[in-house]
Specification:
- The chain has eleven helices and 13 strands.
- It is of the alpha/beta class.
- The chain has a domain of 217 residues: Rossmann fold, CATH 3.40.50.720.
- Helix 1 packs across helix 7 and helix 4 runs parallel beside helix 5.
- The longest helix has 22 residues.
- The radius of gyration is 19 Å and the shape is globular.
- The two termini are 33 Å apart.
- The model has no long low-confidence stretch (mean pLDDT 96).
- The structure holds uridine-5'-diphosphate (UDP).
- The site of uridine-5'-diphosphate has 14 residues, from helix 6 and strand 8.
Length: 317
């Protein structure tokens, strides 16, 4: 198949590109940012990069006309952006998604929209199945702008599906692995990674008992491919993640243990890291029945193995 990945130069996109090339697909990526994460694919005969963005309608039109399937991954992601640049989060995630859907509809091309576990907000009823409620805080708390932007994207997907467009939504749960963000920025694993490699204390926010379900990127990519090419996926939304819950404190201890780093743990307040425009989520756990039954994928990589591979990769960088 010919496949377009918007935001294909990012963390998940780079792994998805590799996996699709290995399947024999032809992969086009649309990427306005750096191409560091896909530089090892640059000479591949079935791989092409277009250095532009989903905000450019003409580029989308010429690319989507040529492909069979679109993975729409392009988005502004990362808590530092939610609290630092909410305008850009809303603009790219809402308007960029509309642009992609509009052109895909014109040509009748299937879209897999990459959404997030953040859409459930802080719903206290766990685990979250795909049709569960969204429970969010005030719009004065910038953290929720990302959740809202992705939920708007999902509404657009369902609206276009009603108009006849084949669309599938994937909601990712804390995906990690080699090439995740940059050290010190982005998500917790890269923040801990920087501290670990310098032997500094790992900054655990609050008591560290908040949990996440850390999902290894290869598992997430296998499910993403099935969401695009597998049967029974149109008009569906899928939680993509393991249901094994890990506290942030245990994550910190495990990373110290695996790396053999002299780092210790320092408890900090959320204000110290993110200021006042941040609200933490206590627990986040998917019901992944649909992923297992319809996509036929188990997120089975143990955290220790996935972290060992991730730490090793960052060490060699
Ligand atoms: N966190 C932490 N120390 C830090 C940064 C984040 O303990 O230096 C916590 C944060 O409070 C949250 C968890 O790590 O509970 C995961 O944060 P991340 O930014 O990866 O994204 P989230 O899963 O909240 O979307």
């Amino acid at each position: 198949m010919k496949i377009l990945i918007t935001g294909g130069g990012g963390f998940v996109g780079s792994h998805l590109s590799e996996a699709l090339l290995a399947r024999g697909d032809e992969v086009y990526i649309l990427e306005p940012g750096g191409t560091q994460k896909v530089r090892h694919l640059l000479g591949h005969p079935r791989f092409r990069i277009v250095r532009d963005s989903v905000m450019s309608h003409d580029i989308l039109d010429s690319l989507i006309a040529q492909v069979d399937l679109v993975y729409h991954l392009a988005a502004v992601v990362g808590v530092e952006h939610y609290v630092g640049d909410p305008y850009e989060v809303l603009n790219v995630n809402v308007n960029g998604t509309q642009n992609v859907l509009k052109v895909a509809y014109k040509y009748g091309r299937k879209v897999v929209f990459s959404s997030t576990s953040e859409v459930y907000g802080r719903n206290p009823k766990l685990p979250w199945s795909e049709d569960d409620d969204r429970v969010l805080g005030s719009t004065r708390i910038d953290r929720w702008c990302y959740s809202t932007s992705k939920a708007v994207g999902e509404h657009f997907c369902f609206a276009y599906h009603k108009l006849g467009l084949p669309v599938t939504i994937t909601r990712y749960f804390n995906v990690y692995g080699p090439r995740l963000d940059k050290i010190d920025v982005g998500r917790i694993i890269t923040i801990f990674m920087g501290q670990l490699l310098r032997g500094e204390p790992l900054t655990v926010i609050g008591d560290g008992l908040q949990t996440r379900c850390f999902t290894y990127v290869d598992d997430a990519v296998a499910a993403t491919i099935a969401a695009g090419v597998g049967p029974g996926t149109d008009g569906q939304v899928f939680n993509i993640g393991t249901d094994v819950e890990t506290s942030i404190l245990d994550l910190a201890k495990l990373m110290i243990d695996i790396s053999g780093s002299p780092s210790t743990i320092r408890f900090v307040s959320k204000e110290e890291v993110y200021g006042n425009s941040y609200e933490d989520i206590a627990r986040r756990v998917p019901d992944n029945t649909r992923m297992r039954k319809i996509l036929g994928v188990e997120a089975e990589t143990p955290l220790r193995d996935g972290l060992a591979r991730t730490i090793e990769w960052f060490r060699t960088q």
